[in-house]
Amino acid sequence: MKRIFLSLILGFMLSIGGAFAKDIIPTSPVLVNVHTVGLYQVGNDVTIYKFPDENSQILYRVRWNEKDFFPQNISPESFFSVFLAKKELALVNVVDIADGWVEIVYNNSTGETGWIREDDPYKFMTWINFYNTYGKKYGLNLLKGAPALCKDLKSSPEDKAKTISTINVPKQIHLNVIRGNWALVSVMDMDKTPKTGYVRWRSDDGVRYFFPAVKTSE
Questions:
Q1: The predicted structure's pLDDT at residue 11
Q2: How many structural domains is the chain composed of?
Q3: What is the rounded CA–CA span in Å between residue 127 and residue 111?
Q4: Which are the contacts of 139, defined by CB distance < 8 A and separation ≥ 6?
Q5: Could you list the residue range(s) of the whole structural domain that residue 134 is in?
Q6: Are 183 and 208 in contact (CB under 8 A)?
Q7: pLDDT value at position 32?
Q8: Do 37 and 115 share a domain, yes or no?
C-alpha cells in the first residue's frame, strides 16, 4: 500500500510539471561556469551527489519522460545542454571526470555542479569530439549575442591574422576542421558567395560562440 501511495505521489508531481517535449539547443552564449570539458549523455533518472561518494548528500534526483520533468525548481533548459527527444539525445555539461564519477553542471542558470555515477565512459564527449561529430554533420550556427569579431573570417587561426572576409547573413556554415579555439569554416551567405576562413568558435576562457546546428528531425 505504501509503495502504491508513493507511486501516485510521484505521478502527481510529474504531472504538474507541464509539457516537456521540446528540443533544447543553445541559442546564445552561456556565460556562467564556462570552464567545462565536454558533454555527458544521461538517462532519464539521474541522482546528483554533492561529492563523488554515494554516502554524500544527494542534491537532486532528476527524472523525466517526453512529457514531464522533475524536480520543478530545476528547469529542463537549466539542466540540459542539448535535449532532442526524437533522437533520445540528452546531454549535460561536464566539469570533471574522476574514478568512475562525473562532475556535471546541473543548473546552467547558476553554474551549480554535482556528481553523478559514470555508467559508461563512451557517453562522454570532449567539446572537440562533439563539434567534430555534430558540427561536421549539421554545420554550425552563430549564437545570438556573440561578439561581432566572430563574424570575421581570418587567414589563419590567430587574432592578429588578416581578415579576408566577413559573415553577413549565413545560409550555411560548414565546419571543416577545429584548431584549438578556432574553426576553419566554409560559409554560404545570402548573396550566394562562398567564403572560407577561420573563425573563433569559443573564447580563451571557454565561452562558445558557435554551436552545431543539430537538426531535430531528418
A1: 46
A2: 2
A3: 18
A4: 172, 173, 174, 175, 212, 213
A5: 128-212
A6: no
A7: 74
A8: yes
